[in-house]
Amino acid sequence: MSVDTTEAVSISRLRVPELDQLPPKLREQIDSITAQLGYTPNWIRAFALGGAHTARFNEYLLPLLDPNQGLLPYADRELLATVTSAENGCSYCRLNHAGSLGHALGDRKLGTRIAIDYREVRELTPRQRTLSAFAAKLAVHPGEVTDEDIESLRDLGLTDEAIYEAVQIVAVFAAANRFSIFLQVTPDDQFFS
Questions:
Q1: Quick one: which of 14, 35, 98, 102 is 20 to 30 A from 75 by CA?
Q2: If residue 166 lies in a helix (H) or strand (E), which one and from where to where?
């Protein structure tokens, strides 16, 4: 299977490689995501230029939002990814995770509102508000995270391991945001249907 070069050029500022040019591990990841979603997302096609480095990045990234893995509930993990993407101004990731968060919460409208600005969503639970504020601060001003911020997560019942998982999610999505913003990855048509 190869990527249509005409279309591929329009999804990224840089060249989008043909699938047959990619390392086997990355091709397997792309095939798996395509099978899961029913389409190949533009982010993975654009990021594929990194070859083996992208495959390693994906090995770290993808399990963090696997609904069947993790210490934190899936909805919490999607919330962290969505707020991080919103704070970083990544339109692709914000749109992508707005839909995923809406699905995880069982309320697509709520997921979209959180992706626009969680601060304007009155009906957030105290847990959601605390996690959102933590993600927002860590994503943009990591040096300003205080011991009180960590205590607020412990007050939610998070163990140190779960707090570290939250940090991993924010950090890896902040990195993905920077890749997407730099590449100007075009949002998938599926985000708008």
A1: 35
A2: helix 160-183
Residue 41: inside a domain:
yes
Q: Which percentage of the chain shows pLDDT scores above 70?
A: 95
Dihedral class, residue 70 (left if φ above 0, else alpha if ψ from -120 to 50, else beta): left
Q: Could you read off the pLDDT of 116-141 as tens digits, one per residue?
A: 999 999 999 999 999 999 999 999 99
Does residue 15 lie within any of the structural domains? yes
Overall pTM surpassing 0.85 (yes/no): yes
Q: Is residue 121 part of a domain?
A: yes
- Under the banding of pLDDT at 50, 70 and 90, the label for residue 106 is very high
101 burial level (CB within 10 Å; 0-12, 13-18, 19+): buried
Rg of the Cα atoms in the chain: 17
CATH of the domain at 18: 1.20.5
User: How many separate helices (H) and strands (E) can be counted in the chain?
Assistant: 10, 0
Q: Which domain holds residue 83?
A: 74-192
By C-alpha distance, which of 159, 174, 6 is closest to 85?
174
Cα 100 to Cα 5, 21, 22, 97, 105, distances in angstroms: 28, 30, 27, 5, 9
